[in-house]
Amino acid sequence: MLKVGLIGFGFMGRMHFDNYVRLASEGEPVELVAICDLRIEELKNGKAAGNMATEQEVYDLTPYRLYDNIDAMLEQEELDIIDITLPTPLHAELTCSLLEKGYHVLCEKPVARHSTEGWKMAQTAKETGKTLMIGQCLRFWPAYTYLKSVVEDGRYGAVNAGYFFRGSGLPQEWFLDGEKSGGCILDMHIHDADIIHWVFGKPDHVSTLARNVIPGSGYDTVSTNYVYPDGKVLNAQADWTLGGDYGFSMTYRVNLEQGNLVFENGELKVNPNDAPGFVAELSPESGYYHQLKYFIQSVQAGTPVSVCTPESATGTLELIEAEMRSADERGALVSL
Looking at the DSSP assignment, which residues form a beta bridge with residue 186? Predict the structure, then answer.
């Protein structure tokens, strides 16, 4: 039985909590035993806002051992896995320390605040022999894994063009400190940049237009063109300043030689050029569920993870850093 300690109990920590509880109930060899957060006394009785709904608003944490100090949790618990859902600047140092102490680590995206830190995390995992996976959850999201399968098996030919979008209202607290979060471009847009990297490989160049709307928050709205040798036209946009009743959206449209895929409002429509269109049958489970299940099973079996490796996630961070440089130069082409 793999025993898990969860560090961070904001929105993403609760999302992971929900799925650990469910996976354990389904017979996966995992048990969440401890939760640590500097504000645990406040958070255990409060709500956490996010762009998707968690299973509960207020959580009953009486079955779990609670800590407000990481060292105390590590000293008093016998854990196999540490799950980190803390602010981005805290990822690198803590992950490396935990790996060196002998824990397997699941670390939320982005891998780190800077790619140099991401490469250090990857090297530490290699040296310690412990499993480190980064929570780039779209690599497990059914609509996006379907896209990857279509591109890889070539059932509709080569890709001609694609467009990806992600948007919401403003996040809260530390997310609006650009020095910590990296702004929308690093915290939100990185999801689609990661899918582009994962599905199509790294581009030769990027050209990015971006704007700061909220003072001090970094780039809040972004549009990037990705340049590939075969000439396909790929663009990804993100905006977390969509106010009013907008809510949250994640969409894509990919046009291939023999058809197109359109994902919007939670539905993936496949439109072959020579046959009637249809709605793809997808798993109803979220990427968070599939991600944690994959990680648990990999650790239990002692097999390396091949999805969301720290090396690949750091490659995506390098892509974002190139986009930031391009945005700083008002859309100049930046090579990778």
Answer: none
